[in-house]
Amino acid sequence: MKGKKVILYFYPKDSTPGCTAQACSLRDNYETLLAKGYAVLGVSVDDEKSHQKFIKKYELPFDLLADTDQKIVNDYGVWAEKSMYGRTYMGIVRTTFVIDEKGIIEEIIQKVDTKNHAEQILK
């Protein structure tokens, strides 16, 4: 991906409400992102079959990476302890990395607005 600006976004799970809103925000603004020179890649620990179903159902024009061995999420530090309804578990902390053409991280978005994520990136 060297030579391209990359939006590398990590999300918890295919086809869940927040993850769908985030992916659809990027889908709906994809042409604008491309025009600004960005490639878009999503990453979760779901498998390739789950990703293909998600891509097809929501007509996503970008690739989703299946990180089933959790290497990428660990390398980027987004695999962490989370809690919901009093239960703690390990999972992906929703985070987006904006990477420049030289592979340098320009921005890390940790408070992702799932419904308006493309706008957050383009601001």
The proportion of strand residues reads: 25-35%
CATH H-level superfamily title: Glutaredoxin
What is the arithmetic mean of pLDDT?
96
Q: What structural class results from the helix and strand content?
A: alpha/beta
Q: Report the C-alpha radius of gyration, rounded.
A: 14 Å
Low-confidence stretches: none
Distance between the termini: 23 Å
How many individual β-strands?
7
Count of alpha/pi helices? 5
Helix content: 25-40%
The number of distinct structural domains comes to 1
**Major sheet:** 5 strands, mixed
What is the level 1 CATH name?
A: Alpha Beta
- Sum up the overall morphology in one term: globular
CATH fold annotation: Glutaredoxin
| Biggest β-sheet: strands ordered side by side in the sheet | 3-2-1-6-7
Order of SSEs: EHHEHEHEEEEH
CATH architecture: 3-Layer(aba) Sandwich
